[in-house]
């Protein structure tokens, strides 16, 4: 029969509808989290925004922590893990100037995602089930830097990963106080240059750092 819809076409339409619903739930959850904060938003709030049932929400997500995890993985402007994969290449180049440029790009990443970062922090503080998600997300960052880890060697791998974690923490806090709260005045300095002075040598293995200091 001309114009009949095949089973394959029906399946494709259902898949498209599911994908559209999932995207709408992510968009609504992100918008509500940013407007109200993580704790104030319920699953019912999200489904009401989209016009679907709780059952539909749970077809796609396990709960609020899961939807926030997927927001971080799918809706941020450039995933954080790719920012640190970029850092791996920069450190391998041995160029201090390239490191400074990387810091500027990293701060731009924070600016692009500044609305969701406080939500993530709130969820870590208030939602015990979200903490393992946040821990895994931070662990992904040094894992995206295999050349950096190789230069430190297996015996110092934990220290190398800790240094990346400390860098992430300082960049987050610096950006919050500088660009969000406005409580840190950098009007007479270039933050990227100052951060380079601190972090470029700190990320070098000791023998490379000593060689650079003697050069």
UniProtKB/TrEMBL annotation:
Residues 42-61 bind DNA. It holds the Pfam family TetR_N. InterPro entries: Homeodomain-like_sf, HTH-type_TetR-like_transc_reg, HTH_TetR, Tet_transcr_reg_TetR-rel_C_sf. Residues 19-79 form the HTH tetR-type domain. Transmembrane segments: none annotated. PROSITE patterns: HTH_TETR_2. Coiled coil: none annotated. The keyword DNA-binding applies. Keywords: DNA-binding, Transcription, Transcription regulation. PANTHER family: HTH-TYPE TRANSCRIPTIONAL REGULATOR BETI (PTHR30055:SF234), HTH-TYPE TRANSCRIPTIONAL REGULATOR RUTR (PTHR30055). This is TetR/AcrR family transcriptional regulator.
